[in-house]
Amino acid sequence: MLRLPPCSYLRPGSVEEAAELLSRHGERAMLVAGGTDLVPKMKRGQMEPEVLIGLGHLAELRAVTETEEGGFLIGAGVTLAEVSAHRRLAAAYPAYVRAAALVSSPALRNVGTIGGNLCVDTRCNYYDMSFEWRQACGFCMKKDGDICRVAPASKRCRAIASSDTAPAAIALGASVVLAGPAGRRREVPVDGLYRDDGQYYLEKSADEVVESVRLPAPGSWCSSYVKVRRRNTIDFPLAGVAVALRRSGPLVDDCRIVLTAVGSRPFDVSAAAAPLIGRELTADVLAGADGLLAEVAAEAAKVAKPLDNADLHYVWRKQMTRRAVEQAIVEAAGRLPVPTGRA
Amino acid sequence: MTTPAAGREAGELHVVGKGLPKVDAAAKVTGAIAYADDIDLPGMLFCKLLRSQHPYARIVSIDTSAARAMPGVVAVITGDDLPVKYGIMPTCEDELALEHEKVRFVGDPVAAVAAVDEETALAACRAIEVGYEPLEAVESIEQALVSPDDEPIHGYAGPANVHRLAALEFGDVDAGFAEAAHVREDVFFFEGNTHLPMEQHSATAQAVGDKVTLWSSTQDPHYVHRALAKVLGLPMGSVRVVAAPHGGGFGGKCDPFSHEIAVCKLSLMTGRPVKCTLTREEVFYTHRGRHPVLMWVRTGVDRDGRILAMHFRSALDGGAYGSYGPASTLYTGALQTTTYAIPAYRFEGARVFTNKAPCGPKRGHGTPQPRFALEVHLDKLAADLGIDPVELRRRNYVRPFTRTVNWLRITSCGLGEVTDRVLEASGYEHRVKRPGHGMGFAVSSYMCGAGLPIYWNTMPHSECILNVGRGGVTLLSGATDIGQGSDTVLATIAAEELGLSPGDIRLVTGDTGLTPVDLGSYSSRVTFMAGNAAREAAARMRELLVRAVAEEKGCAPDEVAVADGRIGLIAFEEAAALAEARFGALSTRGSYTPPQGIGGRYKGAGVGPSPAYSYSAAVVDLDADGRSGEIRVNKVWLGHDIGRSINELAVRGQVEGGVYMGLGEVLMEAQAYRDGLLRQPSMLDYKSLTFLDMPEVETILVETLDPEGPYGAKEVGQGPLLPVIPAVVSAVHEALGVWVDEVPVTPDKVVRALDARAKGKEPRYGPKSFPQIPYPPLVKVAPPDAATAAL
Predict the structure, then answer these.
(1) Three-class secondary structure of residue B181 per DSSP
(2) How far, in Å, CA of A253 to CA of A245, rounded?
(3) Residue among B200, B690, B752 minimizing CB distance to A232
(4) Nearest residue to B772 (alpha-carbon basis) of B217, B16, B160
(5) Which residues in chain A have their CB less than 8 angstroms from residue B693's CB?
(6) Of B537, B557, B592, which residue is a domain's last?
(7) Is B119's Cβ below 8 Å from some Cβ in A?
(8) pLDDT exceeds cutoff 90 at B105
(9) Are residue B256 and residue B335 in the same domain, yes or no?
(10) For chain A, where do the domains classified as CATH 3.30.390.50 start and end?
(11) With an 8 Å Cβ cutoff, is A8 touching chain B?
(12) Alpha helical stretches, state H, chain A
């Protein structure tokens, strides 16, 4: 079997200490919680940390608490399985809980964490390979090489953002709390955590630890997440769409649409939802009448530029992005309370 | 060999046909079984292979000095240490355990290291410097047909990179087409795929002096034994191969492999045990999986849909080495005739070399591809004629106890019955058609063991020895249980004859040092052949026991009942002591050789004949999304003519496993390449069905009691996979109105077929044409005359 290269494992007593260890060891160090992304990548030489800083044992990262504003603060160490099974979260944030429940397989959700999923490495089938395979290929800029194999003219890495929970968190207006050394903390919108670069995909300094995810009060938002993939479990998204909808009376008041797995970061394409605002989502509209959903989906999917670095044909993945947008809007609309006075 | 009449009534059987748990079930589910990689010997070294990173290159230099100098490295070998070529088939022994002249695919082994641990062995492999001079890689069938600028991949074949050609004609095909009321042609492509066993290959060798023992996860220790003796230059008696308890083969562990040879050589050199366990990625390179096959078929029928003539062409992408290739090539043309009575048949086949991992046998060996093409082709023919596709097939079904145009002897045949039963159970004929929903039907047939061995010899194909003594009953057989349940079958048969329970039989199997010959677990041969050998050995033992008891009691032998642990009224152990006192050491033998005259006498006639054929029929029910092309299979009904179930539970398990594998192949599995590199050498990226993708399977067993099978039994390991693939393609057509003439039927291909239809083009996705291939002149074989054709 592939062997795990030797490395040291440090066990900080607190998040603050973890950040200090990160600061001290610099690029030699990486954080590990569930390890579902990191461990196979270490075996294949994609990541070569000499020092691992463990987070999985920190109780302070494992709480789900209701905030005074009526929202939730979820510790980064809470597992995807715990979020998937959390009834109050499911009622308030269906898109987020659905996304967590669709990550990988039950065994991996039992150890994989929500912080880990937000930070999950970008993926590419020229990169997610063994050392020998990548060497045979001539390596790529994301690791050990200098060009992008799927788009040789590209100045940046075109690996694919593959977090399921990130688009849901963005659509729900969530933010992430980052803890640095010496008790330094800052909170940024989840959308602000990402860069459109497959290699340097996180907008966070090297000594910061994702401590928690803050979900605002659900208000009257209803949400959904649709994941496109080959099989009904295990697979990463080939496209993922989160939609959050709010209604005022019978009319759509606001609608957010966020895509994942169509580029190197999640894309907030809520502007594409403009034609829906002030409209009533009747059964006919949701069934495709007057092409309203198709128009929104086509506009939303414009940002999707799939390349031949993931499963199935890239043209199909682009087509499915549009379909997933429509499906996510229909699903979110189905969760909206039926306005009073109407059958 | 004489077999007691097969037709013993089920009521007279005590353990045969019962759904008892497999004899190794508890040990497997509790983890007590030690697989090949669980072997851990004192002082053991670990071996890793250095593999080529070029699809095609000449080796200019190999420098192992840095590797040898590393602490913990005990031995390093290259091709110079193992210069003898080998290969499973005598006509294409084109492999070296370690290449030293040129490499032919990414993954081709070049050097091997034995070190104190795997990490050191890997680091040493990386420290070996190999100088390569890259050659232009051959990546497709079309490219292989064109003369290369560089030298061909192998020097012994040709033209260009053609490995093997075949051209056979049975009966007057041109006359049949001339007479036909309707003629149709179609082109199909079946992408290659791999076995994906749960267990990676693993081998451990232990040399003592100049003798070596190998424990390996192999399906046929006998052939590995032969290859090792040849390559190591040792007498057969100095080499012992033991098939370790097995974690899945499916044909992927049927060749002798580099890692098996390397560990033996390294152990002989170092005097220490040496183990090599492949990584999952290396299993993809070791491969020997399903050939990608391009196919063209032309059929002429009369007004009623009766086949008058068929012409079938195939082109197989063989990858870098011969492996079972000549047989694989002929198998793409051999079994079309075992389901349909084709009066005139022409087959032209070709296998080419390309710079990819070598292909070989996978469950159904060479027949799933043509079966997919044939069944879908018949659906299209039926549509042309406005005849129901099931009815068209029925009009052409072979009859039991007949001989096909290519001289294959058909005995028991439950084709009509499996058809009736799956149609009835599935409600296929009364289905209400609606958009997005489809049902598909297809049939198939498979061999119960190849009629001829892989290399010419006159030994029996299976032999068994049965010993009875104070230690109980021990059955020695060369057969290898690869998870299919052959241990259970052999124990059940011996127990049935001796009036015992399967758990009473101690098995010693798959050990070339201890057990008599058995050709191995391939071609669905073990139940039929080793089963008959076990039955003969046990029946002979039974006779001794009965005679001893009859003499003791002064009664006639036929008054002595054998059942429930007793011989007559005497307990089995006592009866055994009586027999031993009379006859000396109690040891009986059984053997099985397929009968003569089950096939033809032409060149190429060695592929296809079998002492019996199983028959399967499938109905698939699915929903297909007209926008995304996504397919959800709701249910599969699989009817199988098993002859007789030796163990019904194990038979059902094999049917479900075959359906699972067939669905994986038709829906998603692909061993595909990009620029000479495998696209998906991992279990995440190589897609096979998960629990959540697997539909319900309803298994319907039909017992036709084959006259030569043990108790009437036939095979189940391979046949049930075959009809699933075309039945899915047919159901997708019914659901969406488009043909996907290329396996796997992935959603992106379905959408491209739908897009083609939307643009007014042919509603189809698939290959457009079949290449020009320099087939040799046809070998014309006269079909059997009417008297010979009716057995």
Answers:
(1) coil
(2) 8
(3) B690
(4) B160
(5) 231-232
(6) B592
(7) yes
(8) yes
(9) no
(10) 222-335
(11) no
(12) 15-25, 38-43, 80-84, 87-92, 94-101, 106-111, 114-118, 131-137, 165-171, 283-286, 292-300, 314-335
Query: Residue A100 — very low, low, confident or very high, per pLDDT cuts 50/70/90?
Result: very high
Q: Is B632 exposed, middle or buried (0-12, 13-18, 19+ CB in 10 A)?
A: middle
Tell me which residue range forms the domain holding B330.
Answer: 293-400+419-440+612-777
Contact A181, A16 (CB under 8 A): yes
Give contacts of B691 with chain A, Cβ < 8 Å.
233
CA-nearest residue of chain A to B750? A316
Q: Are residues B673 and B756 in the same domain?
A: yes
Q: How many domains does chain B have?
A: 3
- pLDDT value of position B1: 35
The answer as to whether B605 is a domain residue is: no
Q: Is A138 left (phi over 0), alpha (psi -120 to 50) or beta?
A: left
| CATH code for the domain in which residue B521 is found | 3.30.365.10
CB A185 within 8 A of CB A109: no
Q: Per-residue pLDDT for A343 more than 50? A: no
> What 3-state class would DSSP assign to B460?
coil
pLDDT, tens digit, for every residue of B405-446?
999 999 999 999 999 999 999 999 999 999 999 999 999 999
B758 contact A CB<8A: no
Q: Is A290 exposed, middle or buried (0-12, 13-18, 19+ CB in 10 A)?
A: exposed
Rg of chain B in Å (alpha carbons)? 27
Q: What is the CA radius of gyration of chain A?
A: 20
Q: Which residue has the tokens 């390349």?
A: A307
Same domain, B660 and B525: no
What CATH class is the domain A59-119+160-215?
alpha beta
Which amino acid, one-letter code, is at A193?
L
Rounded to 10 deg, the angle between the B531-553 and B486-498 helix axes is 20
**A234–B690: do the CB atoms touch at under 8 Å?**
yes
Residues B506, B443: Cα–Cα separation, whole Å:
39
Q: Are A242 and A285 in contact (CB under 8 A)?
A: no
Let me know if B556 is exposed, middle or buried by CB neighbors in 10 A (0-12, 13-18, 19+).
exposed
Is the pTM for the entire model greater than 0.95? yes
**Residue whose entry in the numeric block shows the structure tokens 């490395």:** A7
Rounded Cα–Cα distance for residues A324 and B722 (Å): 35
Q: Which residues contact A336 (CB under 8 A, 6 or more apart)?
A: A222, A245, A247, A281
C-alpha torsion B397→B399→B400→B401, nearest 10:
-140
Residue A231 contacts residue B633 (beta carbons within 8 Å) = no
Tokens of B254: 């049927």
Do B501 and B467 lie in one domain? The reply is yes
Residue type, B426: S
Query: What's the Cα-to-Cα distance from B716 to each of A68, A70, A197, B324, B737, rounded to whole Å?
Result: 65, 61, 53, 22, 33
Q: With an 8 Å Cβ cutoff, are A315 and B680 in contact?
A: no
CATH no., domain A222-335: 3.30.390.50
Mark whether B551 and B674 lie in a shared domain: no
Tokens of B504: 């009473």
State which residue of chain A sits closest to B748, comparing Cα positions.
A316
Residues of chain A with Cβ-Cβ distance to B106 below 8 Å are: 136
* Unique residue bearing structure tokens 């009766």: B306
Where are the domain boundaries for CATH 3.30.465.10 in chain A?
Answer: 59-119+160-215
Closest-CA residue of B relative to A230 is B687
Assess whether pLDDT exceeds 80 at residue A342. no
Beta bridge partners of B613: B447
Rounded to an integer, the average pLDDT of A72-78 is 98
Closest residue, chain B, to A316 (C-alpha): B748
B488: nearest Cα among B22, B119, B135: B22
pLDDT of residue B4: 43
